[in-house]
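re the bet — no i am not wrong, look at it urself. input seq straight from the record:
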Amino acid sequence: MLAVSNLSLRYGKRTLFEDVELKFTHGNCYGVIGANGAGKSTFLKILSGEVDPTTGHVHIGPGERMSVLRQNHFEFDAFTVMQTVLMGNERLWNLMQEKDALYAKPDFSDADGEKAAELETLFAEMDGWNAESDAANLLSGLGVKEDLHHTLMGELSGKVKVRVLLARALYGNPEILLLDEPTNDLDVETITWLEDFLADFQNTVIVVSHDRHFLDAVCTHIVDIDFGKIQLFTGNYTFWYESSQLALRQRADQNKKMEDKRKELQEFVERFSANASKSRQATSRKKLLDKLVIDNIQPSNRKYPGIIFRPDRDCGDQILAVEGISKSSAEGVLLFQDVSFRLVKGDKVAILSREHSAITAFFEVITGHEPADTGTVEWGTTITTAYLPNNNADFFRSDDNLVDWLRQYSTNKDETYVRGFLGKMLFSGEEVLKKCNVLSGGEKVRCMISRMMLANANCLILDEPTNHLDLESITAFNNAMKEWPHIALFSSHDHEFTQTVANRIIEITPAGILDKRMSYDDYINDKSIREVREKMYGSVTIGG
């Protein structure tokens, strides 16, 4: 059991949250959400003891062990992979070190022998003889091959290192598990493995994540940090979002009778409870929802961007014809070859590849920013494009304020008109006079979305559009793309975004493409497609 009482955190005059009273119990998974800068990661650091609160206390059950996945990927660079994972169980690791140091003594005495026997008993009680095999099984489940188990962490790639650090956090069945953005840099198969692991995990999990599909798959509760408060809600992210939006609409309808509101909320809860999708979590979540007091459902105070794409004209019959294009990197590494396809009306295409550099190069080629090494790209005469690049640094090197920055991309130079598009992306008041070269990553992406909306294009090209965005912006963008009836080509690590938007999948490999008209979930779960990818890649790992 983990609990916080009278918890507050202030930095000078700024209050992140105060008077927090929460209890986290075994068998539940709590997803921590909040806008960028709300204090999600800081809250986890308070729970782990890394940051001291301004007021209040954190209480952990006696004898319970807490394990933490942190974002510092260089902390264990001097240790091997196996050592790093074993250190996840600090008590066992310290015992192993003490035992090894004792046996290494050149003047081993009778007293040392007695001490060694005592340590061996403790070691056996902690199942120490199976420690390395348990750690190896965990690493293998996360896709870390056996030949890397005794490699130094500092020699690993970033993606492999994330898997090892995740194994370290999971090792030894901790009573309390804190995970800060655990799906970052993980491929689809590893995320699925983690979802299944946490669905079976019987202890307490508290996780910060922007991955809505992951939050939906594993969470029984949502911990919402908003307006200086931390509130606990039953259900996963989608239930929290949809119920809070329903409550918000009800609050706006002043004429609706209270009994009608309660009935609508009750029907919503029953419908959601019946449709819980993750089988191992569904039973637990349904029991929680059955106990839910309808009056506890409250509207969210969050503001969601107004993302609305309106093309000047519809697409004609000729949209895009790509014939035999190939591209290599500046270092001569082949990124893709022999890519050919045609788009038709209504295509919303998710572009996949094991190497995201291939996707970015592909987008740069079809938008005309880079030439293809071979082949042709031909757009229809009715098609206008709006491109959201993965790297937007070159757009924000000036010291223009946001109004002047956006005005350069608008045919209508009126300040009120331009401010309207910034306002849709939640830039208001004095914020629009901020210099564009001091923006955060999320603010830059929101500015780029404003720029796209101004273009009135009928074809949207999006390279990782959800990067740097908070959950509110991701949800708003996702909703806008679900409603978009025209052409889109995009890549995204956000599972929910890809599953709910794409009606066609094109996967780019060095040997060519796979092109299927189906949903993302159907694509990644299709056995015949997996077999083809095994031949093209030598593995089944996909994603960016």
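see?? Residues 236-296 form one domain. told u. also Residues 7 and 56 are 4 Å apart (CA to CA). so pay up
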